[in-house]
Amino acid sequence: LCGNALTPKRGVFGKTGDLQTILCLACARDEITYSGALNGDIYVWKGINLIRTVQGAHG
Protein backbone atom coordinates (compact mmCIF):
# COMPACT_ATOMS: atom_id res chain seq x y z
CA LEU A 1 0.00 0.00 0.00
CA CYS A 2 1.42 3.33 -1.04
CA GLY A 3 -0.75 6.13 0.32
CA ASN A 4 -4.24 5.18 -0.80
CA ALA A 5 -3.16 3.03 -3.77
CA LEU A 6 -1.96 -0.54 -4.12
CA THR A 7 1.32 -1.04 -5.93
CA PRO A 8 2.02 -4.45 -7.50
CA LYS A 9 5.16 -6.42 -6.67
CA ARG A 10 6.10 -9.81 -8.05
CA GLY A 11 6.16 -12.46 -5.35
CA VAL A 12 9.03 -14.92 -4.89
CA PHE A 13 7.59 -18.45 -4.89
CA GLY A 14 10.84 -20.40 -4.54
CA LYS A 15 10.15 -24.12 -4.06
CA THR A 16 7.26 -23.50 -1.65
CA GLY A 17 4.44 -23.21 -4.20
CA ASP A 18 3.43 -22.96 -7.83
CA LEU A 19 2.39 -19.85 -9.74
CA GLN A 20 -1.42 -19.72 -9.54
CA THR A 21 -4.20 -17.26 -10.21
CA ILE A 22 -4.79 -15.40 -6.94
CA LEU A 23 -8.45 -14.70 -6.13
CA CYS A 24 -8.30 -12.96 -2.74
CA LEU A 25 -5.94 -11.42 -0.18
CA ALA A 26 -5.93 -10.80 3.56
CA CYS A 27 -3.32 -8.77 5.43
CA ALA A 28 -2.06 -9.57 8.92
CA ARG A 29 0.67 -8.31 11.26
CA ASP A 30 4.41 -8.26 10.67
CA GLU A 31 4.24 -8.12 6.85
CA ILE A 32 2.24 -11.39 6.68
CA THR A 33 -0.27 -11.69 3.84
CA TYR A 34 -2.57 -14.60 3.02
CA SER A 35 -3.72 -15.23 -0.54
CA GLY A 36 -6.29 -17.66 -1.87
CA ALA A 37 -5.39 -19.40 -5.13
CA LEU A 38 -7.66 -20.73 -7.87
CA ASN A 39 -6.66 -24.34 -7.08
CA GLY A 40 -7.89 -24.05 -3.46
CA ASP A 41 -4.48 -23.51 -1.84
CA ILE A 42 -3.78 -20.73 0.63
CA TYR A 43 -0.39 -19.05 0.34
CA VAL A 44 1.24 -17.38 3.34
CA TRP A 45 3.63 -14.53 2.46
CA LYS A 46 6.21 -12.60 4.46
CA GLY A 47 6.86 -9.46 2.44
CA ILE A 48 7.22 -10.69 -1.15
CA ASN A 49 8.43 -14.20 -0.18
CA LEU A 50 6.12 -17.21 -0.06
CA ILE A 51 6.82 -18.95 3.26
CA ARG A 52 4.09 -21.61 3.43
CA THR A 53 1.39 -23.29 1.36
CA VAL A 54 -1.78 -24.78 2.86
CA GLN A 55 -2.81 -27.25 0.18
CA GLY A 56 -6.44 -27.93 -0.65
CA ALA A 57 -7.86 -25.55 1.94
CA HIS A 58 -10.87 -25.03 -0.31
CA GLY A 59 -10.81 -28.36 -2.13
UniProtKB/TrEMBL annotation:
Gene3D superfamilies: YVTN repeat-like/Quinoprotein amine dehydrogenase (2.130.10.10). This is Uncharacterized protein.
